[in-house]
Design a protein that fits this description.
single chain; about 350 residues; alpha/beta; TIM Barrel; eight-stranded parallel β-barrel; 13 helices; 14 strands; binds flavin mononucleotide
Length: about 350
């Protein structure tokens, strides 16, 4: 099943293997512009039926990590065109992950005070300029609570980024609603203490995400919009016992939008195991395509597909050191382990540890 074609809206995917979004921080400076090196990296990984790019900030305000490529300037759109052309020429499809980090930022990176549902700081570090020169990990700044105008402006940024993505040749966009970033921050009780229509009830807490999905879908077509969620991953050191329930309720509300897919991120950082019951409920509630990622092996992937609990399976770390990962999986060829050296070259730098991993040699 994993290597069968899959119909994703207007697209035919060569297989059900997806390359998961992975920040690699190789954009050109100044201006955080995608480049030929990035095009080569994604081209090498085109044996995946679908590629989802690294998190791509929709605005300067949405940035949380230096060197991540954006999608809000003409240079960035032109840079991404190199990537989409390369992937399409190699026969695959590519979505870009639209990202606003919310409170996971520092004013030295975004040029603005970070924004969040409520003015509650997350104890975490982000990659940015160091006070004495160079780059490294810096503690996040305390965020400000978003006003209604901030929310409206941010939705407009996502809409513009969606249009820019289409102009850059992407097949669609994935709205990053996972991992404690902006939309996840609104959905969780500990980080959202608002008392307007974006806080309180579950419906209010996913309202911002739903409004953004609807607005982007209206602008570029619902079959070009996916969403990533991580209800079982902890945020800010704690689990939110309501997140699975909130997510199921949000799925019910998303169903009429006819989105391209819903993508669950599992098994990273502190997390709860995903009960099969949750998968069954999600499947029953949500009629569209479901994708899942997080420490999936070929056997787990095939099992989830056979049980019809998911339609697509995304792989992250294996794609770092195996550019031809889908082909290796299909043929049961050996996998190049993701080792300590690979870890050193994850973020920033040049071709080393990025485009110099070899295809399997017959
Ligand atoms: C280097 C690296 C960067 C990542 N960057 C992102 C990102 O930009 N957006 C995102 O949603 N997830 C990101 N992730 C999480 C992956 O998409 C994926 O969910 C995770 O690695 C678990 O899958 P795996 O066990 O197959 O690696 C990143 C993971 C890694 C290893």
């Amino acid at each position: 099943m994993l290597f069968d074609h899959y119909t994703l809206g207007p697209l035919t995917l060569n297989n059900r293997v997806v390359m998961a979004p992975m920040t690699r921080s190789r954009s050109s400076q100044p201006g955080n512009v995608p480049n030929a090196l990035m095009a080569e990296y994604y081209r090498q990984r085109s044996d995946a039926g679908l590629i989802i790019t690294e998190g791509t900030p929709v605005s300067p305000q949405g940035r949380g990590y230096s060197m991540t490529p954006g999608i809000y300037s003409q240079d960035q759109i032109a840079g991404w065109r190199l990537v989409t052309d390369a992937v399409h020429a190699a026969g695959s499809k590519i979505f870009t992950q639209l990202w606003h980090v919310g409170r996971r930022s520092h004013s030295s990176i975004s040029g603005h005070q970070p924004m969040a549902a409520s003015a509650i700081k997350v104890p975490d570090q982000v990659y940015g300029p160091l006070p004495y020169g160079g780059f490294g990990m810096v503690e996040t700044d305390p965020p400000k609570a978003m006003s209604k105008t901030d929310i409206d402006n941010t939705i407009a940024d996502f809409v513009q980024a969606g249009k820019n993505a289409i102009a850059a040749g992407f097949d669609g966009v994935e709205i990053h609603g996972a991992h404690g970033y902006l939309f996840d921050n609104f959905m969780r009780q500990a980080s959202n203490q608002r008392n307007d229509e974006y806080g309180g009830s579950m419906e209010n807490r996913y309202r911002f995400l739903l409004e953004t999905l609807s607005a982007v879908a209206k602008a570029i077509g619902s079959d070009k919009v996916g969403v990533r969620l991580s209800p079982h991953v902890h945020e800010g050191g704690t689990a939110d016992a309501e997140m699975p329930q909130l997510t199921l309720q949000a799925l019910r509300a998303m169903a009429p939008l006819n989105l391209a897919y819903v993508h669950f991120s599992e098994n990273i950082a502190d997390h709860d195991e995903v009960p099969d019951e949750f998968r069954r409920q999600a499947r029953a509630i949500y009629p569209g395509t479901i994708m899942v990622a997080g420490k999936k092996t070929k056997a787990i992937a095939e099992d989830l597909l056979q049980q019809e609990l998911v339609d697509l399976v995304a792989f992250g770390t294996p794609y770092v050191s195996n550019p031809d990962y889908a082909t290796r999986l299909q043929n049961d060829w050996p996998i190049t382990e993701f080792d300590a050296d690979a870890r050193l070259t994850l973020y920033g730098g040049d071709a080393k540890g990025y485009t110099d991993y070899q295809q399997h040699q017959l």
